Amino acid sequence: MLPDIQRAVGLQHTDDRIAALAKEIAALPRHIAEIEKKLEGSKRKLEHDRAALAANQRERKGLETDIQSQNAKISKLKSQMMEAKTNEQYRAFQHEIDFCETEIRKFEDRMLELMTESEPLDQNVKAAEKILAEESKTVEAEKNQARERTAADQKEIEKLKQERSRVVSEMTPKVVSEYERIRKNRGGVGVAEAVNGRCSKCNMIIRLQYLQDLKRGDRVMTCESCGRILYYNPPETFEDITAETQAARG
Predict the structure, then answer these.
(1) Mean pLDDT of all residues in the chain?
(2) Region 202-216: what's the mean pLDDT?
C-alpha cells in the first residue's frame, strides 16, 4: 500500500475520532439539561407540600384572630349587659353572647382539625426536602462528571488535531486535497476499504480489472461509484482468502 494511502486511512480514523468527540461534546449540554430536569418533579412536590403547610398555618392564624375577636366582643357584650335596663335588652345581649360562643366553638373545632392535619403536612415537607437534597447531590455529581468528560474530550481533540497536522505534513498535498474534498462531499468519509470485491462504504461491486489494479497498490485510486479513495488490505487467513475468492467469482 502506498504511504499516502496508509496515511489517508490513519487520517480517516483520526477524523472519525475527532467527529465522535465533537458530537459527544455537543450532546453534553443537552445531557446536563436532562439531568437538571430530574429535579423539577421533586421541586414541584416540595413547593406543593410547603404551600399546603403554609395554607394550614395561615388558616390557623386567622382562626386565632377570629377567636380573639369573638372573645373581645363577648367581653364588651357582657359589660353592656350589666347596664341593660330591661329583660328584653338583657336577653338580646345574652343571645349575641351565645352566638359568639357558638362561633368560637366552630373556630376551635376547625383549629383542632388543622392541628391534626399539620403534623403529616410538616412530615411531607421534611421528606420532600430530604429527597430533593439527595437528588440535588446526585445531579450535581452527574453534572461534574459531564463537565470532566467535556474537558477530557476537548483535551483529546487537541492531541488528535496535532497528530492530524503531523500526518498531513507527511502526505502529498494533492492527495490531502483530494481526501479533504471527498470527505467534505461524502459525509465526513473520504476513504473506503475494498472488502470482498465491494466498496465498504457504498457497497457497490468493484470491476475485476479495477480491483486487480487496486491490489497492486502503486497509485491512488477512487471508488468508481461513490468517489472515495479506495484501499485494499490483503487477506491474512485462509478463511479470508476463501471469502475473497468466492466474492470475486460472485
Answers:
(1) 92
(2) 95
Q: What are phi and psi of 192, to 5 degrees?
A: -140, 145
Contact 11, 161 (CB under 8 A): no
Domain 6-169 of CATH type 3.40.50.2000: no
- Domain range summary for the chain, segments of one domain joined by +: 6-169, 173-249
**Contact 207/224 with Cβ under 8 angstroms?**
yes
Do the Cβ atoms of 179 and 169 come closer than 8 Å? no
If we measure between CA atoms, which residue out of 195, 174, 203, 204 comes closest to residue 246? 195
More confident residue, 174 or 35: 174
